[in-house]
Amino acid sequence: MLARSLRHVLQSRSFHTTPICTTFWVKSKKQGYEKEQPILPTKKMILEGLKDLKEEIIMWKEEIKEKLETDPILIYRPNEIDVYCRFNTREAVEKWIVTCDSDHNEGYSKANFELSTAGYGLFNGIVTANLPKDGRIKKAGYASIRSQRHTKSFRRNTYYDWSTYNTLVLRVRGDGRPYMINIGTEGTFDVTWNDIYHFVLYTRGGPHWQITKIPFSKFFLASNGVVQDKQFPIPLNKITSFGFSVSGRGGFDGPFSLEIDYIGLEYDPSNIEEFAYEMYKQEKYIVAT
């Protein structure tokens, strides 16, 4: 009888159970930002599945061929830039995911990622920190672009392995705004789903291109937008995504424009730094005294 009464109270006041779920367990990687996918007819699903199967087999053959032909000595040479992504075609640009606050009815920012008239990737739009008057949203004013999760044939999730490199190389043309570089390292467990390493990209503005080189040792760890107290070097063999973001907070409302030629990787022998952020760890007996 007592158990039945308690169950009735919990069902009638469901908000009592919410803190337990949100505090100790995250149900979804997208945390409520999922989009429902339409259910396709069976015949259409079979036809699309056969089409995908043909493409996956071709991809699998390319993987085998690459594995047999790859020579690490020829690929990873010091001070030589290997291009991870070059935005010189419409197909290359369309593979990236564009997000801003207005996509989720949480603000009024607008963003696009398209091929510029000069033939490069152009991340542009307008960011504003104005809030919807619904009494729910507390922060707004952001836009971002992000690469899709790296997959192998037959939809197998995998990682980019950048462990042979130590420097990120970008050729960009900005508007003078600072942008955030975001490197995703999504882990297996829910506490690591939103682990992202950040570093600021400062742009000059003006008509000239700039080549920026950033050691991976400079990137710092954050999760859900919060810089973590305990920092670790970026696991370069576990990269899941790469992206840029821009914020309109702090008086930075207005239009933005970042033109990107390529994202590259380099091994610089002169860079011997392992991690830029020194973490002071004391023995327990010293802290306790």
Tell me about this structure.
There is one protein chain. The protein is α+β, with helices and mostly antiparallel strands. Strand 6 (151-152) and strand 7 (156-157) form a beta hairpin. Mean pLDDT is 82; it is low at 1-22. It has helices at 2-12, 18-24, 42-69, 72-75, 90-94, 284-288, and strands at 82-86, 97-100, 110-115, 121-127, 142-146, 151-152, 156-157, 167-173, 178-184, 195-202, 210-215, 220-223, 226-227, 241-247, 254-266. A seven-stranded antiparallel sheet has the order 2-5-14-9-10-12-13, with no helix packed on it. Strands 1, 3, 4, 8, 11 and 15 form a six-stranded antiparallel sheet that branches.
Strand content: 25-35%
Count of helical stretches: 6
Distance between the termini: 53 Å
What percentage of residues falls in helices of 4 or more residues?
10-25%
Query: Which class best fits the helix and strand makeup?
Result: alpha+beta
Q: Would you count the extended β strands for me?
A: 15
Instruction: Report the uncertain regions.
Output: 1-22
Report the major sheet. 7 strands, antiparallel
Using the CA coordinates, give the radius of gyration.
23 Å
The secondary-structure element order is HHHHEHEEEEEEEEEEEEEEH
User: What sort of overall outline do the alpha carbons produce when their principal axes are compared?
Assistant: globular
Strand order of the largest sheet: 2-5-14-9-10-12-13
Indicate the mean pLDDT: 82
List keywords for this structure.
single chain; 289 residues; alpha+beta; 7-stranded antiparallel β-sheet; 6-stranded antiparallel β-sheet; globular
